[in-house]
Design a protein that fits this description.
2 copies of one chain form a homodimer. Chain A has about 210 residues and is an all-alpha fold. Chain A has 2 domains: about 45 residues, Homeodomain-like (Arc Repressor Mutant, subunit A, Orthogonal Bundle); about 160 residues, Tetracycline Repressor, domain 2, CATH 1.10.357. The longest helix of chain A is centred in the middle third of the chain and has 23 residues. Chain A is elongated, with a radius of gyration of 21 Å. The termini of chain A are far apart. At the A-B interface, helix 5, helix 7, helix 8, helix 9 and helix 10 of A face helix 5, helix 7, helix 8, helix 9 and helix 10 of B. Chain A binds a DNA duplex (18 and 18 nucleotides) through helix 3.
Chain lengths: ~210, ~210
Amino acid sequence: MSDMRDRILARACDLYLEEGLQGFSMRKLARSVGVTAPALYRHYENKERVLVAVVGEAYKLFGQFLYRSLAGHTPLERLHLAATNYLEFALGHPRQYEMLYVSPAALGLDRLPQEVEEHACATGQFWHDRGRECMDAGLLREGSPEEVSMTMWAHAHGLLFLYLRGLLEMDEAGFRRMFEASSIRLFEGLAAPRLFKELAERGEALASAG
Amino acid sequence: MSDMRDRILARACDLYLEEGLQGFSMRKLARSVGVTAPALYRHYENKERVLVAVVGEAYKLFGQFLYRSLAGHTPLERLHLAATNYLEFALGHPRQYEMLYVSPAALGLDRLPQEVEEHACATGQFWHDRGRECMDAGLLREGSPEEVSMTMWAHAHGLLFLYLRGLLEMDEAGFRRMFEASSIRLFEGLAAPRLFKELAERGEALASAG
DNA sequence: GTCTATAATCCGATAGAC
DNA sequence: GTCTATCGGATTATAGAC
């Protein structure tokens, strides 16, 4: 059976969802599949390869959420959908979301394999495209689309990270409201006119004040 | 010797810096201190308590960076210094920075101990204070100081997280420039006037578009 | 391809002598 | 307060029979 590989992968994803990275072991996986541990090594070289495959599945699901945004009819709608779907994925599948950003060391690797890096790169490219087409349409200030999309990406991930770590004292409904309000702030700007006036008077640039 | 506890803690910090969380063990720590493993248990109840103490040291160092910002003479200057010192701490001490945001599960705990939660809470309060005094001075738009400081915190942490994970293809100098530019974008706002015009025409709110 | 059996390590933590 | 010795467990991975 060649689909034994798929069965193992499916059980590996479930095991990761139940136990997290800490509680994931080849013995537990084998028990869950219904075989003994050595049998797994016929299908996957080692534990790290299994975990990398689990990361791949997380990216596959993430991609389904993200590319659904392309159904929007205008650049602004597509950007809005991308942000909404990003939020929905992270809140609906927090363990998979965590897996997107797992450190190589946590997987027992020095560097992430090319397969995963390409997934991550494609995600960055997706955000870049959303930023660029909005900028081309005159909806965003002129500037570097790459950098603007980084700002949006960092803002969204930063909020989600802090919330999922339990560092923000609010429930999910409260977080959703705050996420939306914070996104509006990002687009409107935090500063009051007086801030720029004060800076101009001091003749200094607003340096790294985030 | 009561300072044996301190010696162990100092070596534990070094061991964590060298090996990370994955490679940290009581046996290695004992070897590093120059005693046998059981001796450690006279000074620390178990491995988790040692790691919690290491997190505490990271917060202590972080606090030194952050509270240095209070030397600024105006609210804006203190906010600016806080952001700069936050960046300097994260780039100068990436492993300790990572430790500030370590998940309880990675430490083998269900929840972080009160000691660490208080540290994290104090950090949130610090950012809140910086936001509030700038808002009181009319430098930031009216709103909730707590939420505005969350936006700034999330933006800064999001950028640093992506950079430290190696997901942004740039060197440290490039990142510093981007961090500053992104912070300015955050204060000025991403949107061009046309975006608000388009939204008003559609009669819909700009929802969660970050 | 799966099994049993096992190698070879590592781990956290404890008992009890000194 | 530190030691030796050890418990009891985990892990990845392999050898060889079937």
